Amino acid sequence: MLLLSATVAVLLGTTLGLLIVTVASQRGAAREAFRSQEALITASRLQGSFVQIENGLRGFVASRRERFLEPAEVALDSYPRQLRRLDGLASDEPRQRRTLADLETRIEDYVGLWALPLITLARKDPASARNVVVSNEGRVRLAGIDGALDELATVKREVVRDNAQRADDASTLAIGFGVGGLGLVLVVAAGVAVYLGRSVVRPVREVARATGRVAGGDLSTRVPAQREDELGDLARSFNEMADRLQVNRTELAARTEQLEHSNTELTRSNRELEQFASVTSHDLQAPLVTVAMYAELLERRHAAELGEGLELVAGIRGATGHARTLIRDLLDYSRAGREQPSLEAVPAETVVEHALESLAGAIETAGARVRIDGTLPVVLADAAGLTRVVQNLVGNAVKFVDGRAPEVTIGAQREGAWWRLWVRDNGIGMDPAHAGRIFEPFQRLNGEDAYAGTGIGLAVCERIVESHGGRIWVDSAQGRGSTFSFTLAPAIDHAAAPAPTVAAGR
Amino acid sequence: MRGRPLAVPVGRALAALAVLMLALGGCGEDSSPTPSAQQAQGEPIRIGTKNFTEQYLLGELYAQALRAEGFRVELKRNIGSSEIVHQALVGGGIDLYPEYVGVLLSEVAGVTERPDEDEDAYQLAKELERREGFTLLAQTPFSDQNAIAVLPATAQREGVLELGDLARLRGEVTIGAPPEFASRFEGLEGLEEVYDLRDLRADAMAIGLQYDALDNGQVDAAAVFTTDGRLAEGDYVILEDTRGLFASQRVAPVISQRVLEAKGPRLAETLDALNARLTTSVMREMNAEVDLRDREAADVAAAFLRTRAPGG
User: Fold this and answer.
1) φ/ψ of residue A236, rounded to 5
2) Residue of A nearest to B17 (CA)
3) Res. A129 pLDDT band, cuts 50 70 90
4) By CB atoms within 10 Å of each CB, which of A145, A349, A491, B39 scores lowest?
């Protein structure tokens, strides 16, 4: 694996390196070609300079007129620059250096041994200069310079040609290298891919598949884990995980079974209890009704004979009446938990009005003022259940007062996906620490003597609200009134409707 | 596959190595014969020569003798006639060149009334050069005078044996000569002035070609040097200089005093010793080797230096 990666890296590196070398040599070739071209031009200019010098020289010697010398002097002034330029353009290649050195010597000799001495001689001894100038030395030296320049040009042209050839070869080679190297890299990479597929991807895929099977529930799935590398670690980790999952699920299954069992037991006992309560309530009511009827008969027919006993009969009637109320409430409570409410769109307004009508006597007696704050929504509820809840809450509100005229406000507020309906009073309130306890059946915070009731109303309310999926709670403080709130689902689920404005901008 | 791109640097390295070896070889050639490598330091001694065989030989003799002593030498052959070579020396193009004392006086210094004695002429020339910042090293035993030669037939038929006899030739007398002959005192000017010759015309040609021109009848006479190899065979008659127009022409190297001082006494010692050995017969023989037997001046000079080493 490591070896293969290293091989790929080395191959890529070598290919890139060779390409860089080749491209660099191409650039070198181009630069050399440019320099050679410049050198050829400079050489040609230099040649021109010396033709100008020689012609000027001859013209001057023949005519003794200085103006013939002017172009020669210009050329004598400029040739060192041209020579330096040529020197700069020549490469370090030995043949070029040799040729250039030869050229420099020849030029030096032409100028120092011919042109300058001849100019001096011509000014001093024109006749001698004329005789000297007819000799061929100047032309021979000029020809020597031409020859050296030609040689340099030839060398340069050869350099250009060689470079072009070399560049061509290098290009071909580069392409060869590029294609060959990349091909090789591809082959090796393909080999690596196959190897990876065999040795890495496949085990990983096995683990992935196994994970899928585990997720699908087959916890007995295991993967081979003989390898000593990271893949082996992965496989072992997977198997370990599967082991644990399997153990956990076995335990879970056992516990679930237990739970289901106890749940079933509980449900059964609960149902039995409710049946018992219901049956007991009915069974209890019958003798109570009989007792109450007999007591009434005694009162009506034997009032004169009873005398003092009449008070006792009244006591019997009161006790049986209380017992009947208790039984009725118990039945209510039992029923509220047992039956699933039949939900429908119910205008809370109507429900509240209905409840208030049924409480009209109590409200009037208490001198209470009940008002509805704002409008009440349409909720999804069982109308009878909801009426019971409102009756209970408003009934409590007007009941638990400390002498002041009760003020009860009913309102509703949208809270997320729910409507919160609330009933606020200015009554005695309660210690918030006991706020949770009041929804338990037969729990009373105040003495039975102070306020009438069985202590089951709020428990019934809670059962009804919870059977609607909502919840009920109280916000209160001792002596500062209470606000009972309960939540109900809206009849039309506005929250689920798409928000209309946000998308408009786009 | 990898060999090609690597071939460039390898090639370069080989080329560099070759250059290095050449450079080492070149150094060895200059400095190996003697231990006086110190003398090889600094600028090379640039020796110039004029444009004919004897000068080529002298240049080679000087250069080879000096190199054997460890000096670096640049030999610049065939610069031209005395007029231009001396100007090159003055202009700094060369450091020394072999010059004929008579020519130095008459053509370079413009002295036409020359001392009779060679030694006096030499001292005068030396003094004149000294004023210009140059000096003369010891002069040679041989003298290569200017002369006018005719074919033996002409001499016999027309009775031309002396320079003055040229007047006997009918019509215009043409003399095959190098171009400078026309404007030199030891040339047309002197012939006309000293010998009162008229109707002379110089036919300018490269030195050496005047013999052929004479043979072909293209010219009546030829300006020659008395050490010319071609005179050795007796094919030409040298006209007698009865009025002393052509001065003695022993050779002395003219050298820049600055260079002489810079290079130390060994330079003068070497050339003086060499010059002392250059007799007329030696010089004529060497000239003949080159002109008649087509040998290279360098080889002839080398052979001379080899076979007759100082003190050997």
Assistant:
1) -65, -40
2) A94
3) confident
4) A349
Distance from CA of B76 to the nearest CA of A (A): 8
Q: To the nearest whole percent, how much of chain A has pLDDT over 90?
A: 12
Locus of tokens 């749940």 = A263
B229: DSSP letter: G
Identify the residue with better confidence: B49 or A267: B49
C-alpha to C-alpha distances, A182 to A172, A186, A390, nearest whole angstrom: 15, 6, 85
Q: Is any Cβ of chain B less than 8 angstroms from the Cβ of A62? A: no
Residue positions counted in chain A: 506
pLDDT along chain B (312 residues), means of 10: 41 44 41 44 88 94 95 92 90 94 86 84 93 94 93 93 92 92 91 92 90 94 92 88 90 95 94 93 91 94 80 45
pLDDT of residue A450: 66
User: Does the model's pTM come out above 0.90?
Assistant: no
Euclidean distance between CA atoms B233 and A369, whole angstroms: 170
Residues of chain B with C-beta less than 8 angstroms from the C-beta of A113 = 48, 76, 79-80, 84-85, 88, 93-94
Within 8 A of B97 by CB-CB distance, chain A residues are: none
Contact between A11 and A184 under an 8 Å Cβ cutoff? The reply is yes
Helix segments in chain B, DSSP class H = 3-31, 53-68, 82-90, 101-103, 118-131, 152-158, 190-194, 209-216, 257-263, 265-276, 280-291, 297-307
For B80, nearest residue in chain A (alpha carbons): A137
**Helical (H) or strand (E) element with B177:** strand B173-177
Find residues 149-178 of chain A whose CB sits inside 8 Å of chain B: 166, 169-170, 173, 177
Contacts of A120 in chain B (CB under 8 A): 87, 90-91
Question: What is the number of helices (H) and of strands (E) in chain A?
Answer: 14, 7
A21 touches chain B (CB under 8 A): yes
CA distance A494 to A1: 61
- Alpha-carbon distances, residue A366 vs A405, A408, A450, A479, B220 (angstroms): 7, 12, 15, 18, 175
Smallest Cα distance from B307 to chain A, Å: 33
Q: Are A468 and A382 in contact (CB under 8 A)?
A: yes
Residue A132 touches chain B, beta carbons under 8 Å: yes
Using the beta-carbon criterion (under 8 Å), do B51 and A112 form an inter-chain contact?
no
ipTM exceeding 0.85? no
Strands (E), A286-394: 344-347, 369-373, 378-381
Of A94, A108, A113, the CB nearest to B15: A94
Kind plus residue range of the DSSP H or E element containing B98:
strand B96-100
What's the rounded Cα separation, in Å, for the pair A426 and A418?
Answer: 26
Query: Are the CB atoms for B248 and B118 separated by under 8 Å?
Result: yes
Place of tokens 């450079």: B23
